[in-house]
Design goal:
- This protein is about 75% helix and about 5% strand.
- It has five helices and two strands; from the N terminus they run ααβααβα.
- The protein has a two-stranded antiparallel ribbon with strand order 1-2.
- α1 packs antiparallel against α2 and α3 crosses α4.
- The radius of gyration is 23 Å and the shape is elongated.
- Bound molecules: zinc ion (ZN).
- Zinc ion binds next to α4.
Length: about 140
Amino acid sequence: MSRNRKSSKTAHVLKLLTNSSDNVNPMINDGFKEEVIHSRIQPKAANEQNDDPKPVAVNVISELVYEIMPEVLSRFNCCTCDVCQAEISIKVMDELGTHYTPIIDENSYRQLNQIKDEKRKIVTRKLVSIAFKYRNMTKHI
Ligand SMILES: [Zn+2]
C-alpha cells in the first residue's frame, strides 16, 4: 500500500519536473523534494518499529485529560472544538506537569491504571476550574 503511494508520488514529481523544464519554480520543487524524502523515511521508520519495538512511555496526565475533558466541557457548556480542547489540555499539563510511566509488559498496564486512579481526582479538579473560566468564551463549533 505504501509502495503504491510512494511510486505514484514519485511519478507525480517526475511529471512535474519534465513538464515544467522552462518555468521551474524552485520553491515548489523543494517542497516536493521534501515530500518525497518524507515518504521514503516514513515507511522505513515504521518497519524499524516493528522489528525492534522501543519502550513506550504513556503520559498519565494527558491520558486522563482526554478521558475526563469531554464530560467536563459539556457540563460547563464549553466549546469542544479541537483548538479549545488543545488549549485546555495544555493548561492542565502546564499546571500539573506530566507523569510518564513506561509500558513494558502486562504489569505496566496495571501500574498505569493504578497511577491513573491516584491522579484522576486532581486532574478532574483542574479541568473543572479551567472549564469554569472557559464557559463564557466564544464557541467555535
Ligand atoms: Zn473552540
